[in-house]
Amino acid sequence: MNVLVTGGAGYIGSHAVQRLLADGHTVVVMDNLYRGHRAAVPEQAGFVEGDLHDFEKLVDIFRGHQIECVMNFAALTYVGESVEQPLIYYHNNTAGVLCLLRAMAEAGVNKIVHSSPAATYGEPPEMPITEDTPQSPINPYGTSKLMVEQILKDTAAANPEFAFACPRYFNVAGCDPEGRIGEDHTPETHLIPVLLEAATGKREKAYIFGTDYPTPDGTCIRDYVHVVDLIDAHVLLMNALEPGKTLFYNLGIGNGMSVREIVDAVKKVTGVDFTVELGDRRAGDPPSLYADPRKIKEELGWEAKITDTETMVADAYRWFKANPDGYTGKV
After folding, report:
1. N or C: fewer beta carbons within 10 Å in the chain?
2. Is 169 assigned a catalytic role?
3. Is this model's pTM higher than 0.90 or not?
4. Domain parsing of the chain, residue ranges
5. Distance between CA 169 and CA 233 in Å, rounded?
6. Is 191-222+255-322 the same fold as 2-173+224-251?
7. d(CA 327, CA 269)
8. pLDDT per residue over 17-73, tens digit each?
9. Alpha carbon distance 263, 265 (integer Å)
10. Pairing label, strands 246-251, 163-169
């Protein structure tokens, strides 16, 4: 299949590109490199530097490469930043995808796998979170992504040939087990990479934001899913798309780990007792989020294979040890 991967130079997108190529698909990556890395894109993939708002460029890609499906990972994803700069998030995450869908319609492309986060659920009254849990986001990031889900539903209702999948995923962790690609954000805010930077001496200390949440140890609880398992699900969803199909699935392992537990896992894997300071809560962070992934297992047969937190940390640590400066200097 000919696949366009938007945001394919980013952390999750680059893992998708790698997997699609391994499966024999023809892949074109479009990324504006704002937070992605050209070095993360394999030579076998075509690459176009561009933005979701580049309507004409998107139409040219669709037609010139005879694209059959889109995997969209192009998004801004920092909760705190979305609270501080909401207009940027709505411009990129919502209006950008609207432009992407218009270009797809113009070129007759009718399949898309669009990443959607657990942040669309907000602060659910009960755990675990099912696909039927009411969606009431508490930050602009979650709202910007929920708006796209509605746009996709409306698009499908108007076009019987259109098909989409919205995997709603929780905290993505780990890196390619062979260490070929990894996670490199600027700024880095994801918990495991931040802790690994503290363990490898790249930062002086790490922080725990909030210790007074209504959880067993007072810190936030999240469901961590390995990036390799996550991409397995994306490929499965892409292959399941057919005209008129609309798919929503939670992607997680079905239980949560607290921030303190993740800190302990990183210290155990690295063997480094780095400094951790306690700080105030961050705006927009719900106390607990973890998935009920039974629906996708029952309907499509997917379940996470890597459920051990220390394995996820070890795969990430392998990348961080070998690439202390991330993709800097790589071609």
Report:
1. C
2. no
3. yes
4. 2-173+224-251, 191-222+255-322
5. 10
6. no
7. 23
8. 999 999 999 999 999 999 999 999 999 999 999 999 999 999 999 999 999 999 999
9. 5
10. parallel
Quick one: which of 54, 49, 159, 139 has its CA closest to 90? 139
> Which one is the CATH code of 191-222+255-322: 3.40.50.720, 3.40.50.1100, 3.30.70.3040, 3.90.25.10?
3.90.25.10
- 328: Cβ–Cβ under 8 A, 6 or more apart, which residues? none
Q: Are residues 106 and 144 in contact, defined by beta-carbon separation less than 8 angstroms?
A: no
Q: Which residues of 14-44 are buried (b: 16+ CB within 10 A; e: fewer)?
A: bbbbbbbbeeebbbbbbbbeebbbebbbbee
Residue 331, judged by CB atoms within 10 A of its CB (0-12, 13-18, 19+), counts as exposed
Nearest-angstrom CA–CA distance, 254 and 277: 29
The tokens of 293 are what? Answer: 């992934």
Burial class (CB in 10 A: 0-12, 13-18, 19+), 325: exposed
C-alpha distances (whole Å) from 68 to each of 4, 34, 64, 130, 152 are 8, 26, 11, 30, 17
SS3 content of the chain, % helix, strand, coil (to 5): 40, 20, 40
Picking from 60, 57, 146, 159, the residue whose alpha carbon sits closest to that of residue 105 is 159
- Tally of residues, the chain: 331
pLDDT at position 284: 65
Which helix (H) or strand (E) covers residue 64, if one does?
helix 55-64
Q: Is domain 2-173+224-251 classified as CATH 3.40.50.720?
A: yes
The active-site residue, picked from 78, 89, 121, 141, is 141
Cα Rg, the chain, nearest whole Å: 19
